[in-house]
């Protein structure tokens, strides 16, 4: 049954029309099903979900809220996908207004349950009857890798900054053991069978009971840490900046989890720098090093890459895997500077350099130590004057052509005096609409986003410091003059707005999920070829329910399965548990964020 016939999702389909349905709508000839919902059991003996009787203890056994990154790994590392596989998902944040029947919970109960709904889930899944379909199986002693990583799970800090004084707290005087992970956004699977996940909007979790520590005024400011969090200090004092000024320094890292070692604590890699990490994706360079591409999702922040000092161990046995799990602790961290070649050629393109920030032993930033650079990477990068980008989200190497694709989701500040346009961030205004069929109107800044394509041009390829770039997509409604679809006929493409996560099928086609569509309709997932006569032909493959963003996309199982996350269905201004705007997936009278799989409907 696992025979690889393949290719289904690389074939032609008719694009889904933009819509406002409270449903997942796939291209004709395809269907989708829910694999796992918020509250479903993850660990053996999990408490049955009851929206009216939620507890932190129950949540720590169940699938958390707001699934974002989606990885699918073979049950046995190094082997092809069998009939069972491991699904690895993170839980970015919580929508308390949609999660609780308000009258039955105290404020502190709500906070404690919300805290427990963050983290990650690892669970065994199984092929369904329809080719390409997958389903959740009941956790038991036969699913030994099922695991819920939550706010109490210990993470080991590793790399050059681990143990630094600025990472120490009362609970952890060593500065090496952090409880939990928050704001996890995108991620990636490594060639050695682990999963990376980015701690993104961690700044919003910290409150203050008094003054902020004056030692960190500039650092807090650059990271948006203002002490206006979610009030969690009333249930856990570590979220009080006045009490624990170093706790926020322990977040904003890339996390690595080995789903095949369920008893091994996950890690946070200081060598990959600290910022609002969207995610991290690895490619092995021609000379054998692990190269990690990363984005800092903030208006005007940067693209980064890391090249490991050691080479990837090609053995798939335990010794090889253990060696590779050290790769992200030593190497060189870079930030990108892009230079345009001018507008005469009618294209937004040019060349670029990766600027060295530090290695594990040497800082290249004047006045900053290696630990300074890694803990306050944004401030270090500022000193090298890299290119301020329009919110770098997923940055992912295409395994077929080796080029790098970065989603630059939008930037309402672009064009202001503080952030002038440049060739890589060219739009100071863009066309948007408020509802399907409403007229296009002009808004300031870059509102629909870009997809940036990077080709490494140095002799050492991905491990080198030189590249060429172009904006392959200038997103928006194809009727808007500013849009560009890789040169493809704009009358034959789908409107696309706010690219967020990217993925590739085995033919090298780019798959894009969106978050925050400003063209008046729901978010969704799109496919676009990057080579040949159809380069730039963006077609919408599916739309997600009201208020949701589409996350994750992962084409796998010989191109038969598209996994994706429906994050925050019903998240619309004014929506509450009683007055929700969505009830998707329509199994209750309130919405439940879920991971789904789409496949051919035979
Ligand atoms: Fe959590 Fe940058 O999206
Ligand atoms: Ca140009
Ligand atoms: Ca994202
Ligand atoms: Ca997003």
Give the low-pLDDT segments.
Answer: 1-6
| Small molecules held by this entry | MU-OXO-diiron, calcium ion
* Number of structural units classed as domains: 1
Classified by CATH, the class is Mainly Beta
Largest sheet properties: 10 strands, antiparallel
Give the class from helix and strand content and strand pairing.
mainly beta
The backbone outline, from C-alpha atoms, is globular
CA distance, first residue to last residue: 16 Å
Helix content: under 10%
CATH architecture, by name, is 6 Propeller
Query: What's the CATH H-level superfamily name?
Result: TolB, C-terminal domain
**Overall residue-averaged pLDDT value:** 96
Number of helices: 7
Radius of gyration of CA atoms, rounded to a whole number:
23 Å
Region (Disordered): 133-156
Protein name: PhoX family phosphatase
Describe the overall structure.
The protein has a single domain, classed as TolB, C-terminal domain (Neuraminidase). Helices cover 7% and strands 33% of the residues. Mean pLDDT is 96; it is low at 1-6. Bound molecules: MU-OXO-diiron and calcium ion (3 copies). Residues 185-186, 278, 393, 500-501, 515 line the site of one calcium ion. Residues 340-343, 345, 347-349, 423 line the site of one calcium ion. This is PhoX family phosphatase.
Condensed summary:
This protein is mainly beta. A hairpin with a 6-residue loop joins strand 5 and strand 6. Helix content is 7%, strand content 33%.
Sequence-ordered SSE layout with sheet pairings:
Layout: E1 25-26, E2 30-37, H1 56-59, E3 67-74, E4 84-91, H2 96-99, H3 107-116, E5 119-127, E6 134-136, E7 147-149, E8 154-158, E9 177-179, E10 184-189, E11 195-199, H4 217-222, E12 254-257, E13 267-269, E14 277-284, E15 289-296, E16 299-301, E17 303-311, H5 318-324, E18 331-340, E19 349-359, H6 370-375, H7 377-382, E20 389-390, E21 392-397, E22 404-408, E23 429-432, E24 441-444, E25 450-456, E26 466-474, E27 484-485, E28 499-504, E29 510-514, E30 524-528, E31 539-543, E32 549-556, E33 561-567, E34 594-600
Protein name: PhoX family phosphatase
Region (Disordered): 133-156
């Amino acid at each position: 049954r696992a025979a690889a016939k393949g290719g289904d999702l690389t074939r032609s389909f008719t694009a889904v029309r933009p819509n406002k349905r409270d449903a997942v709508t796939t291209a004709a000839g395809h269907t989708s099903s829910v694999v796992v919902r918020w509250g479903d059991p993850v660990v053996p003996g999990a408490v049955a979900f009851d929206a009216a009787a939620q507890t932190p203890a129950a949540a720590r056994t169940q699938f958390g809220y707001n699934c974002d990154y989606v990885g699918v790994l073979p049950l046995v590392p190094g082997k092809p996908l069998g009939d069972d596989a491991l699904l690895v998902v993170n839980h970015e944040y919580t929508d308390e207004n949609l999660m609780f029947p308000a009258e039955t919970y105290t404020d502190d109960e709500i906070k404690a349950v919300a805290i427990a709904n963050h983290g990650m889930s690892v669970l065994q899944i199984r092929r369904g009857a329809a080719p390409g379909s997958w389903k959740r199986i009941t956790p038991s002693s036969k699913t030994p890798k099922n695991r819920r990583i939550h706010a109490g799970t210990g993470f080991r800090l590793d790399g050059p900054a681990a143990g630094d004084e600025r990472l120490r707290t009362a609970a952890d005087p060593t500065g090496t053991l952090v409880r939990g992970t928050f704001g996890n956004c995108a991620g990636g699977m490594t060639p050695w069978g682990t999963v990376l996940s980015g701690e993104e909007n961690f700044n919003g979790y910290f409150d203050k009971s008094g003054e902020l520590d004056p030692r960190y005024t500039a650092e807090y400011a650059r990271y948006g840490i203002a002490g206006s969090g979610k009030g969690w200090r009333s249930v856990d004092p570590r979220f009080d900046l006045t009490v624990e000024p170093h706790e926020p320094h322990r977040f904003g890292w890339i996390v690595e989890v080995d789903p095949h070692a369920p008893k091994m604590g996950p890690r946070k890699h200081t060598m990959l720098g600290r910022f609002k990490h969207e995610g991290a994706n690895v490619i092995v360079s021609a000379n054998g090093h692990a190269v990690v591409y990363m984005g800092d999702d903030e208006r005007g922040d940067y693209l980064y890459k890391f090249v490991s000092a050691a080479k990837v161990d090609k053995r798939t046995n335990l010794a090889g895997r253990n060696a590779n799990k050290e790769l992200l602790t030593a190497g060189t961290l870079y930030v990108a500077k892009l230079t345009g070649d001018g507008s005469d050629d009618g294209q937004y393109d040019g060349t670029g350099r990766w600027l060295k920030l530090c290695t594990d032993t040497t800082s290249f930033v004047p006045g900053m130590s290696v630990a300074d650079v890694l803990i306050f990477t944004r401030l270090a990068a500022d000193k090298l004057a890299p290119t301020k980008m329009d919110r770098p989200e997923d940055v992912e190497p295409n395994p077929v052509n080796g080029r790098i694709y970065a989603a630059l989701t939008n930037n309402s500040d672009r064009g202001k005096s503080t952030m002038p346009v440049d060739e890589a961030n060219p739009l100071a205004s863009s066309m948007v609409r408020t509802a399907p069929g409403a007229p296009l109107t002009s808004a300031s800044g870059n509102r629909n986003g870009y997809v940036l394509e990077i080709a490494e041009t140095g002799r050492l390829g991905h491990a080198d410091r030189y590249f060429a770039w172009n904006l392959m997509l200038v997103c928006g409604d194809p009727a808007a003059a500013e849009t560009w679809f890789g040169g493809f006929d704009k009358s034959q493409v789908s409107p696309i707005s706010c690219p967020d996560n990217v993925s590739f099928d085995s033919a090298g086609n780019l798959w894009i999920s969106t978050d925050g569509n400003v063209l008046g309709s729901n978010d969704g997932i799109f496919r676009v070829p990057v080579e040949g006569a159809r380069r730039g032909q963006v077609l919408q493959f599916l739309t997600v329910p009201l208020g949701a963003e589409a996350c994750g996309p992962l084409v796998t199982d010989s191109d038969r399965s598209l996994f994706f996350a429906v994050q925050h269905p019903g998240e619309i201004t004014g929506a509450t548990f009683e007055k929700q705007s969505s009830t998707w997936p329509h199994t209750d009278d309130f919405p439940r964020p879920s991971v789904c799989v789409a496949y051919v409907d035979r």
